[in-house]
Design brief:
28% of the residues are buried. This protein is 61% helix and 9% strand. β2 and β3 form a beta hairpin. The radius of gyration is 26 Å and the shape is elongated. The chain has 203 residues and is mainly α. The protein has helices at residues 28-33, 44-69, 74-81, 87-99, 105-118, 124-133, 138-146, 152-163, 170-182, 187-198; strands spanning 3-8, 13-18, 21-27. It folds into three domains: 3-99, Orthogonal Bundle (Arc Repressor Mutant, subunit A), CATH 1.10.10; 107-146, no CATH class; 153-198.
Length: 203
């Protein structure tokens, strides 16, 4: 196969043409470093290798860009990179970020758990579910949540103070109750705290 054209594209990519036909977009630096020039003859092995190298570079660059923006769990980072690269390249990039200390599930889980508990005022039950969605190991999640002291009723009070303040009608009461249930709090705890604010006994 003969490289008949290499045309620049957006986002540091170049279009590769073989025997006059467009094949795919590849990372420009990878093409240059491997001397993929117009007029060069390549075979299938050469093509597969350059695709692999291009994917690896794109995956690493994507990983660095994402973690410069905010912390990510391994699973979250891998899933995002896979949108633009193949799974193998994504996993290799995340492993490299982990080796460099730029990705650490334990550190991420602890920070994220505290954000869920103290900023969003979720229950530990709801926080555990959110950590699982980020790919955090269940055992690690439980260990971190157990290490954090938390009073569910104080958490419920914090939510009410932040979002409702005054609960003086049935509609607001129902909204607050439903919102607190979504945050994972137990029925008895929600009822007890709402009774404090309404001065009424709730069934």
């Amino acid at each position: 196969m003969l490289i008949t054209a290499i045309e620049p594209r957006r986002k540091a990519m170049s279009a590769l043409y073989l025997d006059g036909e467009f094949v795919m977009n590849l990372d420009t630096r990878t093409l240059l470093e491997n001397r993929f020039d117009v007029g060069r003859e390549i075979d299938d092995d050469d093509l597969h290798e350059i695709i692999k190298l291009s994917n690896e570079r794109r995956a690493k660059e994507k990983a660095l860009w994402l973690i410069s923006y905010r912390d990510h769990s391994k699973k979250e980072l891998t899933d995002k990179i896979k949108r633009t690269c193949d799974e193998e390249a994504a996993e290799a990039a995340v492993e490299r970020m982990e080796e460099l200390g730029l990705v650490n599930d334990e550190v991420y889980a602890e920070r994220y758990a505290k954000k869920l508990l103290f900023t969003k005022h979720m229950s530990k039950k709801a926080a555990s579910y959110e950590l699982a969605k980020k790919g955090i190991d269940r055992e690690l999640s439980e260990e971190i949540l157990e290490s954090i002291e938390l009073d569910d009723r104080e958490q419920i009070r914090a939510v009410i103070e932040k979002k409702y303040r005054i609960i003086n009608d049935e509609k607001t009461k129902r909204r607050a109750f439903a919102a607190l249930q979504r945050l994972g709090y137990r029925f008895d705890d929600i009822r007890a705290v709402l009774e404090e604010y309404t001065g009424e006994e709730l069934i």
